[in-house]
Known about the structure:
The protein is α+β, with helices and mostly antiparallel strands. Helix content is 45%, strand content 16%.
Amino acid sequence: MSKAELLCRDRGLRLTALRRRVLELVWASHKPIGAYDILGRLGGNARTAAPPTVYRALEFLIEAGLVHRLDSLNAFVGCPDPGRMHTGQFLICRECRTVIELGDGDIEELVAAKAMALGFTAVRQILEIEGLCDSCGIAAASA
Ligand SMILES: [Zn+2]
Ligand SMILES: [Zn+2]
């Protein structure tokens, strides 16, 4: 968590108690977590954990680069490399929902260059690649 705090301080962003709590929940989860799971785990305090508040906290964390949104799963994952501004490529296991972030700058540049050649300016690139992770792939092969 101290990494996130430093990052926010460097960028002049304010990590409020709720934003911090939401970030902890996303990072504590080893799988992508949905907004309603986050709400459920925030529990008790209905005022601070109202859905719009949690969505705003998630928006903040996404903007800060600490969390990524995966549209295909409608869920959120913590970024393993938040210090570097990037978009990302995500390998998503269709069996166990494990997500591996590639964060490959070469892929990003290639997509941007190909888009540029068509006169298209790429602003946000999130590639979600569905498949089987190592352990699920082995399980499927031996079944
Ligand atoms: Zn990332
Ligand atoms: Zn898997």
